[in-house]
Amino acid sequence: IRGVSMPEYALGSTTGQRGQYAGIRGQLGWNKHHSGESVVAILEELIWSRGKPLAIRTDNGPEFISKCLSSWSKERNIEMKYIQPGEPTQNAYIERFNRLFREDVLDAYVFEDLKQVKNLAEEWKNDYNLNHPQSSLGGLSPKNYLRKLNVNLST
Questions:
Q1: Per-residue DSSP letters for 90-109?
Q2: What is the pLDDT of residue 75?
Q3: 107 or 93, which is more confident
Q4: Sequence-separated (6 or more) residues with CB below 8 Å from residue 45
Q5: Distance in angstroms (rounded) separating the CA atoms of residues 109 and 22
Q6: Do the Cβ atoms of 58 and 65 come closer than 8 Å?
Q7: Portion of the chain with pLDDT greater than 90, in percent
């Protein structure tokens, strides 16, 4: 929701990961190497559309420990919270997402080619980001949460 500060974004560096804050990996694309600059560009878009976080929790992937992202976060007064190496459970949002993605997509199909994987992953991501109930939204899906918010704002 634009203009509202969010408490924390959870990001990860494995393909397809997402956290409390929808879809940096989906935004960055599949099977690409990402620089700190590309992460910053996506975060700028997400902040514009959803609000600035107070903190970003992430693993120690090279795109997240870059000087570019570090400088950007300091300039915007956003705390970077890095998990300890080898401790993925410190970023539980990402671990939960990985499990759901693995169960719903990777373990559910026998793929014919990479294009099919990308298409199914994209469909799943869109469904997850719009229709999947989120505990951070009181058990509502993002779509239903926005509907409720719009009704409350218009009354």
A1: GGHHHHHHHHHHIIIIITT-
A2: 95
A3: 107
A4: 27
A5: 24
A6: no
A7: 15
